[in-house]
Predict the structure.
Amino acid sequence: MDLQILDHRLRVTSISKNGLVNYTHPLIKLIFLRNRTRCKFFSLTETPENYTVVLDEEGFKELAPSEHLQVESSIWLPLNVASNGNASSSSQAVGVTKIAKSVIAPLAQQHVSVFMLSTYQTDFILVREKDLSVVISTLNEEFNIFKEVEGEYVPVGCQDFTNGLLKNGKEVVQPTVHPVLIPLNQFCVMSLDPDTLPSIATTLIDVLFYSNSPKEESESSTGQDLECIKFFSFSLIDGYVSLVMDTEAQRQFPADLLFTSSSGELWRMVRIGGQPLGFDECGIVAQISQPLADGDISAYYISTFSFDHALVPE
Amino acid sequence: MDLQILDHRLRVTSISKNGLVNYTHPLIKLIFLRNRTRCKFFSLTETPENYTVVLDEEGFKELAPSEHLQVESSIWLPLNVASNGNASSSSQAVGVTKIAKSVIAPLAQQHVSVFMLSTYQTDFILVREKDLSVVISTLNEEFNIFKEVEGEYVPVGCQDFTNGLLKNGKEVVQPTVHPVLIPLNQFCVMSLDPDTLPSIATTLIDVLFYSNSPKEESESSTGQDLECIKFFSFSLIDGYVSLVMDTEAQRQFPADLLFTSSSGELWRMVRIGGQPLGFDECGIVAQISQPLADGDISAYYISTFSFDHALVPE
């Protein structure tokens, strides 16, 4: 299999709930006005705590520093597994399950923190730029590793990176067991022709930026169930749109524009962490994805600034 | 003819050019998300100096006070002339010309400041609430005056207001002569089915909120001609959309959604004032509209926070 190190240098940031109004201007530009920005990697995920924004340096410079913006200090690089023809995997599962044993588990063993971002199209594994040599050393047995350079994929010679191997030692650390929460909402993972993004602009703007303000002409909405979770994720990466939303949000969009995988499957969320997880603990994705891989169960996985979220079939 | 005092209590405000980013969130809500606001009267006009926002009290409470927001201290009421069947006017002219002699001139004579807001649908004459008794006393000979109360038009008895008549005296003040500027752009006055507003959302957002930031993938645009003026006006009043833009901005919108009057006429602008005009001087609209009425020349008239703008046929 091929592992691609994509040509994006990413920042992982968080905007506070009540600070969002101050970032509406740059965020709308990054989402809808492609001819006004060079940003090619943008992801925005609303959770009950905050808005996690992952974006490349071109996008990051649009976000003015303020008390409402938290920025993780590292540069993160997205990795992507390309299942080329001769892949030996017989798994039919999609999402993070496919890469649990080949990528997630070995990186966890090497104590490399990963930030996962599953989308409709693929699963991005974000690693810190400073961990790249360890990552390459760890994965080069299983993968042909390529680095994207100006749109071309250039093979990465592992000899350049052997000094990184096992940098972190191999002692087995007993992983922390985090509490999980399983909210009642059902989620769908959807996409959209990027050319039709303008058609859903007002709905998407409404859901992303105004869903916490009251509706004036409410149709006696019952409001969010207490046992449901607020979770909405939008990403626009290299021209591809991906949306993760619950069925209640989905009803607000025109049914003919968004598409889901042929199965039209609904997903339930497993939210990991009773306390914010931070960025330094390793092995959390592995803890979750390993048993799913053993059972060949598809799963999406979305890390956010505070918590991790796995989506598994209903 | 009938004169209607509409049931809106308006504020006239100005947002500084570089303060707009702080108001993107409430403005987008007021323009596009009708089910999230009770605002029924909203107008936003960009000029080279600032953004003039005229809106009712429901809309005004969305605008958080800041150094970037200037607010004229009065409450303004919109008047509207309804040309009912038995109108004796033989004029074919549209816009402010129709009301120059019957409304604008008499009010100027009574030293009543007016703030004009022409739209595709009609011409709103805004007067200060505290001037209302003078307005009614002045106009009740020429008009049947009605006050809109919860959607119904209730006749206004002039006896309630006679004490206001001639409050300001009748001495003739020599009007100040203001310099005028005639930019080269050609303007069109357009409308749109409000249900199709979402279809032009991204274009409208781009033009309103981002036209001052550079385009990254510019098609070697020559930029705004120095002798052209930046002027764009959007209003959404009682469900009716009106847009005034120059032909350069018009090209960015899909041609099949916006419509103009049957003549498809283009307009040139006469901008009044070398210095900001303020709100207390009277007779400016009269100075301009009187000769246009004499010549039976159609004209739109849009007041902004700093200057007045007449649009006359090319």
Summary: Residues 217-224 of chain B have pLDDT under 50 and may be disordered.
